[in-house]
Amino acid sequence: MDDHRATVESVFRQESGRIIAGLIRVSRSFDLAEEAMQDAFAAAVLNWQADGVPGNPAAWITATARRKLIDYARREQTRRNNEGQILYEYESRSCTIDEEMSRPFEDDRLSLIFTCCHPAINMQAQVALTLRTLGGLTTAEIARAFLLPEPTLAQRLVRAQRKIQQARIPYQVPDAGALPERLSAVQAVLYLVFNEGYSATSGDSLLRRELCAEAIRLARTLLELMPQNPENMALLALMLLHDSRRDARSTADGQLITLEEQNRSLWHQEQIAEGIRLVERALGRRNFGPYQMQAAIAAVHAEARTAAETDWKQIAGLYAILHRSQPSPVVSLNFAVAIAMSEGLEQGLAMIDSLSAGGELDSYHLYHAARADLLRRMGRNREALENYHRGLALTTNAVELRYLRRRIAELDTDSA
Amino acid sequence: MRYMMLIYSQENEAATPEDMHAVAAAHSALMDEVRRRGILCAADPLQASSTATLVRVQDGDALITDGPYAETKEQLAGYYILDCEDLDEALAWAAKIPTACAGATGCIEVRPIREFPQRAPVNG
Asked: Is some CB atom of chain A closer than 8 A to the CB atom of B124?
């Protein structure tokens, strides 16, 4: 009993994205596809207990779900009692499960991922839709992960699905001209899912960890579907390298532990090894992009056995490239920190100061925090304290607040 | 499927006749292209929003007031209706519609037209 149930669950976990992608292709409807898939899994729970688990469980589910779609189309046609469109692409004649199972089982996941992440859909809905269909998460699970009421999230999904249908967002991989831009939109959605799980240490931590694991799974799928793309390799690498530090980056009570202070024996070496392999493969393609630079930086950190052994010179070089292609305040600040750690604190501080010569970073909390960290390292405690306080006044993030308060408390004790 | 493309643009009084001529020429080139492809259903420019009049019927009485529906920076300036395969095709055409004139801003709102199912004619 439990045994075949576990099989059903594992088939759902591993194959539901592929199954639903195919069902959407034939039904041209997210709703019907989902309903048919759920019915088929429910049928599997009953049938597999009686008849045993079929040789190819995913094909059995697909075949059963396709028959359900035919049933729905018939029911709908009877109800309308007119010519109405038959959504189903082939004849709704009766055929056996075996015949149905012999149909080619194509992989439509790439079409699905591009449709879910279409820029015409609101970004949050893109995320929810991707997790719901490709990830196989329930609406309740997604709502909990994003700290949203379930009806709000359900509404968002319904609206997005309606838009796909009514505005006729195509179910296909974009043509070559649009592909680079659309692919980076897909990558952004997956990275956003990862960061949602990774950045907050508050909330349901188990669920957040699962969100990271889910993002990694999706990035793996994207790479499997477009295996030659170096940014896909780098995105997966970046997630693996960050995630490898999950057990070292916060205390039991949710305090952030900086990279420098982490117990590196808690890092997951097998993830680091895979991440580094992927980064090397990506860089070997000589077609650089922002995920590759970020993943390469994460790899350099991961390779250092102690914080002191970190190759800051290499990190500074990578930030210089990233800064040229994707300039942003965060990148500039990190670049300055890397310069401070490789060439000297004075140089780093001078660079930070020149960044904000126009005063445009004055309201940015990380600017003050980064400046404060350098001043602290230089032993200029009074100025450091002043900058930590300025950063504190501008921060709303609970984790960062705790970090800044801790630094302030340490400096207060030192100077007392 | 037909898509309506609503052109919203800033009504730029600083535009010279040359500027306006350039925009008109861009529209007519685009219209030629969509007509040649057989997908042009309709397209028209509108007079300035200062010519707009609102009619609101309340309790059977028509209340007439001056002005466009909303006083926004960008105003409805014209429209296209094109018959496209899907949204991606519609978006690609929308990107070719000129919206701005002499440095002013603009955008296109793309909306699918709601089609009603064809009813069978009563006596066949």
From this structure: no
